Amino acid sequence: MIQLSLVVALAVCPIFLPATSTHQTSSHTRELTSSQHQRMDLIRRLIDSKAWAEISKQVRIGAKSREITLHDLQTLALTYPGTPFALAVFGTKNILSLSEKTGLPFQVAFPIALFAETTLADEIARGTLFWSDHRFGRELQYDPETHQFFIHLGTKGVEAIGEGRKKVVTKTILYDRSQPEVLARGCTEWDITSEFTAMSRLESSPCVLHAKALMRHTNPSSKKAIMTIVTPLFRPGSLQSVIDNHSLKLTFKERLKIACDIITGLGAMHQKLYVHRDLGARNYFVDIEGKKPGHRRIRAVVADLGRTLALVRAYKVPVQGNACYLSPEGFFRSKMMGFDYFNSDVFAMGCVMWQIYFGELPAWGKKRFFRMEGLPLKKRYQKHMKLLKHTRTRPLKYLHAKHKKMIPLTFEDRFLALILQMTDPDPAQRGKAVDLRTQFQALLKEVEE
Prior knowledge:
The chain folds into 3 domains: 6-121, no CATH class; 124-231, Phosphorylase Kinase, domain 1; 236-448, Orthogonal Bundle (Transferase(Phosphotransferase), domain 1), CATH 1.10.510.10. The two termini are 41 Å apart. The protein has 17 helices and 13 strands. It is α+β, with helices and mostly antiparallel strands. A hairpin with a 4-residue loop joins strand 2 and strand 3 (148-154).
């Protein structure tokens, strides 16, 4: 984290280098040519004179011609412990050691790190908070609210994470010389202040995506105002991508864990009197660590709070952003108010639970009756209700038959029963998210024992 007092701190901050002795480092020092010796001598003189911009230039030239490597700078940094140069070398090493692909070569990473350790604080004091990629090869940005400095990676040597109607999502690095972190950066020309506000107010809520920073700048080319929101990075990404990726081979317990997390997030939102209103499968993020099914660490969050509203403002507004997840009562928006939106949120999440369980949208979601504008609204509603009831009939009969014969329900059966409850045509029968959360958590606990 870059504080405004950075310049003062650098003077007293000790160097941090890998746990390796001077003898061990020198024993692996490569033989330098005369031109390499000359460039390294020049860099030494520049360090002594604190000519930081010229040092960056020489490193870029030397790295491009392969005359200078990071190892060379690490060896040189041992001679200048505690200096901005040594700190920048350490920061560069940690950036290049990140496991997530960043597309940052050494000759780009070091000048940025040296800038962060030297002149950044002065430029911030003069009011500069955004630096275009013409200067450093990547866009840089500072958030005065959180005092964090970001290296926006864009799509140079690395793929974008995703793109929606409003945002393009790419990677960014939170610069911290000891522990840099790769995060997700959503960039848009839309005003997303309300989304950021909702995320900030729900920051302490479990299983709800939280924002690291919200920043604004003007696009140097188009002169348009740009808003950037920074959030944690999830891999593989959206829940929809997880459902579609059959090679992941999610176990039942893993699917139940995802379901438990997202109902936990929705329950937390409802407890704080917020409605989501856009609970499609693309608007949950899933992080999976490990490769072996059944032995992976999985967590999921409710994301994309662009339509989120405080309950007091939920009155005659659209019910869900995606018609696939629209509840029956949501057809009549003019009658919707307050807690009706809680019930509709539960239904939409129930549709997503159906996808988690069966691997595809329920039949009523595929038809998108709400979009059939050639039919009167009431007729569309009736068609939706008919298919909803018909689709639910078979699994309901299956569970009722087991109950009638007093056959104990399996864990899978109980999961299915909760999904059917959440997708009940009658809003009053769906249950509250906070109560459903308790039931899902109890089921998961039994499965894990």
